Amino acid sequence: MAESHMFQNAQGFVMNQPQINQTQVSQAEKRGLQILLEASLPTAAYDSSEHPRNCHPGTRIQYIDQIVNWGIEGPDPGHRIFWLKGPAGVGKSAIAQSCADEFATRKRLAAAFFFSRPNQRDDPQRLFTSISYQWASKRKPYAEILKSTIHDDPTIVDKELRHQFHHLFVSPLQELADKGGDITERVVIIDGLDECAGMAAQRTIVQIVAASIRDNTTPFIWLICSRLEPHLVATFKSPPISAVTHQEELTVSRAIDNEIAQYLTDELAKIGEEYDIPVPWPCERDMGTLINLSGGLFIYANTIVRFIGDNDSLGPEDQLGAVIALATSVTKGSSEHPLSELDFFYQLIMQRVPAKIIQTVQWILLATSAADVLTNVKCNRQLLALSPSQFRAACRTLHSVMKVEEDNIIFYHASFMDFMQDPRRSRQFCIWGDSALALRTELTQRLQAVCNDPDIEPYCALHICY
Q1: How does DSSP assign 338-405, residue by residue?
Q2: pLDDT tens for each residue of 172-209
Q3: Which residues belong to any copy of the Nephrocystin 3-like N-terminal domain (predicted)?
Q4: Is the Cβ–Cβ distance between 316 and 272 less than 8 Å?
């Protein structure tokens, strides 16, 4: 059984005055949905403050319309999974977000979950609990069944994924069906499956969903978006899963240059207006350079816009000049890596960080990758012994790739931290590998100091040290 490993390899294990029953009682006293909420990830929902940006108006319409029609009119017989696949940076998350908004407007969205590895939204145990909670907020009869179910067994939220799915969906939906009533909110969106922690968990999620379709135990249809990771390609190729799946691939293509141009034109016009820059700006030649530099990748165009619009720079014209200068040094196809052109841009961003704070910036990034809690601004700052102004000054230099909200550090895309952790790509700026040994040693010493410092926020010290 899935739970049999709980005390595996335990030695000298003694329980004095066990408190299991007392714990279960105190948990059961909570409202069922409160327990479910605590086991979910609200920040992964489509309408959270951390959700990805929608597609720019007038772009990616072909894919959005195709997916919305699939969800509204009903999929082809048996194809109740729509797998939107493609490399990093082609706009899968933006398409998923746009579709989620459209389905929500039409009252067809059951739930949406956006995985994000750099933003610590990667726990597979919180996927089905989050989907269940979101749907319960829309379906009162379902919510009432869940309250009773979780009250009877609060440990449901901690069970293995297959057991979770059965207790949170299969059994309650059977009870709901027995009572009658039509279910209109049937679309579930899972974005960034490849950013879920663990390849085995990723495969298991797909297998569970496919089995529920094959056995007709739930009414849902599933939009799943991910990169073309080999283990996922193999999973979706297996006959039991391919039989219930429609697949659509997004590729890196210059065929969308017109959409990239539309996005850049509209967004840079806003920046130009804000700074009262005489039009036309950018000039036609520079705009052509930006389009070529983007190379069919929306993430590149997004990053260019944020870089040029950086409020803490010498101004948009200076920033644009840096991008144009970069373009002359970029040789298309010079690397096997699919994001090699974007790497040049990430190098530019890091090169423009002032030398006196580059180590602080590296520390902040390394800390966020070391522990989930360190994406919390206060915990990160306390670990590194930075004042609020020092911390924000360092983070402002990375405006193009991340933002700092009141409580959290939020990365726009996983590709930046992938870049920073790969010494072949980020070179002297790498925060991982042999080149960062001294940096990691210093951070380890700081971690030890934090764990013994009574002035550090208890929540931060507890989670950092344990």
Answers
A1: TTHHHHHHHHHHHHTS-GGGHHHHHHHHHHHHH-GGGGBHHHHHHHHT--HHHHHHHHHTTTTTEEE-
A2: 999 998 887 678 899 999 999 999 999 999 999 999 99
A3: 78-227
A4: yes
Q: What range defines the domain where residue 361 resides?
A: 355-465
Burial of 105 (0-12, 13-18, 19+ CB in 10 A): exposed
Work out whether strand 402-404 and strand 409-411 pair parallel, antiparallel, or are unpaired. antiparallel
Is residue 260 within 8 A of residue 228, CB to CB? The reply is no
| Identity of the residue numbered 327 | A
How many CA atoms lie within 13 Å of 17's alpha carbon, on the beta-carbon side? 0
Give the pair of three-digit tokens for residue 199.
């390849």
- Phi, psi angle pair for 110, to nearest 5°: -80, -50
Assess if residue 12 is contained within a domain. no
Query: Please, is 42 exposed, middle or buried when counting C-beta atoms within 10 Å of its C-beta (0-12, 13-18, 19+)?
Result: middle
DSSP alpha helix (H) spans, 185-310: 199-214, 230-237, 239-242, 257-274, 284-294, 298-308
Determine the straight-line distance between the first and last CA of the chain, rounded to whole angstroms: 28
Question: Of 249, 283, 311, which closes a domain?
Answer: 249
pLDDT, mean of residues 412-423 = 91
Amino acid at residue number 383: L
Q: Is the peptide bond before 282 cis (omega within 30 degrees of 0)?
A: yes
How many domains does the chain divide into?
3
pTM of the model: 0.82
- Cα-atom radius of gyration of the chain, to the nearest Å? 24
Does the pLDDT at position 2 exceed 50? Answer: no
Q: Which residues touch 422 (CB under 8 Å, ≥6 apart)?
A: 430, 432, 433
Token readout for 273 is 């207006």
Kindly compute the dihedral angle of the four CA atoms of residues 423, 232, 37, 175, in this order, to the nearest 10 degrees: 180
The string of pLDDT tens digits covering residues 425-449 is: 899 999 886 546 766 677 677 777 7
CB 206 within 8 A of CB 162: no
Residue 8 belongs to some domain of the structure: no
Cis peptide before 280 (omega within 30 of 0): yes
Residue carrying the six token digits 């100091």: 449
